[in-house]
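A quick aside before the break. I want you to see a complete sequence-to-structure record at least once, exactly as it would be stored in a machine-readable document. Don't worry about memorizing anything.
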Amino acid sequence: MSAQLDELGGISGLIVDAASDTTLWLQAAHSAEEEAHVRAMQGRLLGLDRIITRRMERRGSPEDDRQWSETVAEVLSLLEKAREVRGNIVGKGLARLADHLPKGLPGSKVPLVTQAAAPPTQAGGRGIAPAAPKPYRVPAPVRPVSTALTSFTLSSREPKPMQIPQGFPAYFPNELKARTAVILAEAVRKFPDRKQMPELCEYVISEMTPIFCEAVQRGTLRADLALSESGGMGDLLHWLLVHNDDGPKSSGFSSLSDQAYRIEQEARKSEEWLYLARAIADAEGKRKTSAETLYGPVLTGVGPSKPKIGLNLERSLFATRDSWISRAAPKRDNRGSRPRGDKPSEGFSHSPDYRSVTIRGKAHTLTARQAQIIEILHKAHVDGNPDVSTAHILETLETERSRWQDTFRTNPKAKSALIKGGARRGTLRLNL
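That is the input. The structure line, written in tokens, reads:
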């Protein structure tokens, strides 16, 4: 019996993970047909969860076996239809569903016990046949089961507004608070519904990347703390989830529900988080290079060979500012034009990191990942070979398993204004 309960518990966990992925899929749906398939699949998963719950509590009925088989077939059919519309399956939980969801309900039916029949009585020398045995069900103790699927993932239908918590985490750097407050306000305007929490986390990570990098390069924030939960991006991310988490806590020692915890883990595995980590490492390298350029290599030994550095670092920085800027500035021709090799594009301009671009007088603000794509297309346009394959773009961004359109999911206006299809299928070019 314990083995059967373990098997049922494993299936229940599989259904919970799949149902969580349907919520994420609905937020990323591109068409009404895709959304209809996913919503129908979400309802069938709820039905499967109810059957599993009854079986674990020994309240099953003979109809459960038939209903299970029919519902599983419907779920897999809807999953395939949604995959065909979108081109891929959203979430690892749904991807595992087709291979691991059993077609038949495990375990035997609820046992029936027959009452003992009374011995036959004699009347007039004839035996009277005993009455037919009357079956009855054996009562069983009710076992507690997880209600995470029905109480948080599926039953929470009404949208709840996203909240910006008051203040900041305890160890968050003071110098970053003003700019961070602006980013959070813009994030809540873009993603006002709490069901959009995964997209909001990715947006905040992307927008905070240049701010953390600047602090690391200036030396006001240690690189090892920029990603941590001690005043870094991890701290800010956890703080946002705690204040927008309505799900039930799995234990008294956790500050997040299971659903919010999964969102946090997915955010830490996202492309935006990986880009942030690389950018922090680059900023730390630039900081060390700048320090060595100004003062030479710093030795760690003691004795007369140890270089002496002035006590007033700020005064030294200002003293060498002009020479440092002159070395870093690009060379210009005699007419004061743009640097050689960078031909101006008519109707298009951009900031140094492409996070802010203007095309035909219309300005657009981009995330770090969106800026990378526009930079690739713009350089190809300047070189005179405007068409770039989407495979090359995804390989450059190290996101071969994703679609380039997903990068502009939160900024469709910029996508339509800046990008158009190339001369051949599977290529893109800047919309110039």
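Two observations worth writing down. The first strand starts at residue 112 and ends at 114. The chain is about 55% helix and 5% strand. We'll return to this after the break.
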